[in-house]
Amino acid sequence: MVEEYLRIDEDGNVYCFHDSKIVKMLKIEEQKRLSHITPKNPFLKIIFKTLRWIFKDESKVAEWTRHWNCEWEVELILPTFKNRSDAINYEKEVITLLKLKNKL
User: Which pTM value belongs to this model?
Assistant: First the structure.
């Protein structure tokens, strides 16, 4: 189980998980995603993304799609970099973190 995560940077930006209690407590309105959880099956993925585009995240349809009995995958939304060396450093940081968590 993953613990709660909260980070506030020097500019006052709050970083936490979307389903965190913190989001509701602080009434955070502007949110940016770092990933999407989608069905692995290409056909289901198209249906899922279409439904989620049409219906709000809080809708009954969205809730229904969260409970499909299928394989799921994480689609990370990775940042872009102005130069290759910054991208390589980012890649190394992510790989190091995953290795520390024994996820690689």
Answer: 0.63
Q: What are the pLDDT tens digits along the chain (104 aa)?
A: 556 666 777 877 767 776 666 666 766 666 677 778 999 999 999 999 999 999 988 899 999 999 999 999 998 878 889 999 999 998 898 888 888 777 65
Nearest to 2 by CA among 79, 78, 101: 101
Q: How far apart are CA 50 and CA 3, in angstroms?
A: 31
Where are the chain's structural domains?
1-32, 33-104
**Residue-wise DSSP of 43-97:** HHHHHHHHHHHHS-TTSHHHHHHTT-SS-EEEEE-----SSHHHHHHHHHHHHHH
In single-letter form, the type of residue at position 43 comes to F
Tokens of 62: 């969205």
In this structure, what token pair is assigned to residue 103?
A: 């996820």
